[in-house]
Structures are given as structure tokens and as C-alpha cells.
Specification:
Radius of gyration: 20 Å
Order of helices and strands: EHEHEHEHEHEHEHHH
Strand content: 5-15%
Number of strands: 7
Largest sheet: 5 strands, parallel
Strand order of the largest sheet: 3-4-5-2-6
CATH class of the largest domain: Alpha Beta
Number of helices: 9
Structural class: alpha/beta
CATH topology of the largest domain: Rossmann fold
Distance between the termini: 29 Å
Shape: elongated
């Protein structure tokens, strides 16, 4: 198997051409299209990695009236400081979008999200919050009540089969500027669970490792051995409470 890394380091540009519109995202894409016309308040979520950030960046690039703000997960600043900063950034835009990374989020940021929802409601601004989060005891009650009671939930589902999953993997490789044969992708699919939260970081790891080792040709054995070592390392770090 051959693999080639492009010599130029190009910035990632999110466009519709790089977005894989598989059946699992079709309904969500249609709903977001209507939101950009009719407004309202949406909560975009998914059970696992689904490309929500890619989708929002793509929409923001193509719609000048859409402002996109990314939340820092562990920002300890007071809620009013954070919400004022977000609102100041979003003020020139007719449509507001907030992208919250998956994982633990500082309570101050969660309270700031609650205040942003209230501010958008009072100002009549369409608001989209993209966040993979469960409504449980770790969520401030006021924020949970707004997500469930005020925002319309829009789900993104994973690719329905290997053909669509392979297309998503190809898109990820393109974003990494990594030219790789289909046989490499097939080997990864045969070795790893069919979950994007596992496959996406695995692709990033293999790309970095092949570059560091100056490998232009990847064998199936090398791919499997590299993935096995990567999985073993991550398992050991999880047991020790270490996160990448």
C-alpha cells in the first residue's frame, strides 16, 4: 500500500465539497437550512463524533450573516465575562451559532451558555448550540431546562454502512492533506470499531506516525501493529487517568 503526504501545509477550508452528506446527516442538514431562513433556536447534538464542527464551519464560511463562536471547555472566568465576550463577537451577525467541544465543560461556561440563550431570546436572535452532552446532574438545572424546553433538538446520526463510513474517512484524510489508498482505509475498518470517535483520531495518529517515520508505503502489518500499539497506549493512559 502506498501513501503520500503533500509537501505544502495548506489551511483547512471547510466547504460543501468536503462534507459527506450521508443519510445520517440528511435530516439535520435540511433542518439547519430552514433555520437559516426562518430562525428559531436549535440544539444540534449526536451520540458520538459526527462532524458537527465541520458542518458549522462550512455554514459560517458560506453564510456571511452567520456568526460562529467556539467555547473553551475549561474557561474559569465568570459567566458574565464569557457571555459578554461571546455576545460582543456575535453582535454584528443576524444568526448566532455556538460550538461547544465534547467532554467536561467548566460550570462557569455552562452558566454563560444559559445567559446567552436568554440574551438571544430577548434580542430575537436565531441561536444554534452544537453540543454533545447528556441532560444529567452535572448540568446546571437552568441550562438543562432551556436546552430541553426552549431549543429544538436536532440529531446527527453516524454513517449507516461501511461505504458511507469510508467516504467520511476519505474526507478526514483530505483535511489532513494525506493521500492514502483505499486498502489502508479497509485495513483500519477491519481492525477498529466502526465508530468515528475511534477512527478519526486513529487516522490522525497514523498520518503523523507515517510522516515521522518517512514511510511512503504502508503495509497491512504496519497499519495493524501501529494501531495495536496506539490502542494499548491509550488504554494505559485511561487507566492512569491521563488524557491526551
Amino acid at each position: 500500500m502506498q501513501v503520500q503526504r503533500l509537501d505544502l501545509s495548506l489551511p483547512v477550508h471547510r466547504t460543501y465539497s468536503s462534507w459527506v452528506r450521508h443519510p445520517g446527516v440528511e435530516e439535520a442538514c435540511n433542518r439547519l437550512g430552514m433555520w437559516l431562513i426562518q430562525g428559531g433556536m436549535l440544539w444540534l447534538c449526536s451520540r458520538g463524533v459526527a462532524g458537527k464542527t465541520h458542518l458549522l464551519q462550512m455554514l459560517a464560511a458560506d453564510h456571511p450573516a452567520l456568526g460562529l463562536c467556539t467555547v473553551s471547555r475549561m474557561d474559569p472566568r465568570a459567566p458574565y465575562v464569557q457571555v459578554n465576550e461571546w455576545a460582543q463577537f456575535l453582535k454584528p451577525y443576524a444568526f448566532w451559532a455556538i460550538d461547544v467541544p465534547a467532554g467536561p465543560v467548566h460550570r462557569a461556561s455552562m452558566l454563560a451558555l444559559f445567559h446567552l440563550i436568554e440574551r438571544a431570546r430577548c434580542m430575537g436572535r436565531p441561536l444554534l448550540i452544537s453540543w454533545r452532552v447528556a441532560i444529567d446532574a452535572t448540568l446546571p438545572a437552568e441550562l438543562g431546562s432551556r436546552l430541553v424546553g426552549m431549543l429544538e433538538k436536532v440529531d446527527i446520526a453516524p454513517p449507516p454502512d461501511d461505504e458511507w463510513l469510508r467516504a467520511v474517512m476519505r474526507s478526514i484524510c483530505n483535511d489532513l492533506q494525506w493521500v492514502v489508498e483505499d486498502r489502508v482505509l479497509d485495513t483500519i475498518l477491519s481492525f477498529l470499531p466502526r465508530q468515528l470517535e475511534v477512527i478519526a483520531p486513529a487516522l490522525d495518529h497514523l498520518e503523523r506516525l507515517s510522516l515521522a517515520q518517512r514511510r511512503r508505503r504502508l503495509s497491512q502489518a504496519w497499519v495493524r501493529e501501529s494501531l495495536a500499539a496506539w490502542l494499548q497506549r491509550d488504554s494505559a493512559q485511561d487507566e492512569g487517568g491521563v488524557q491526551d
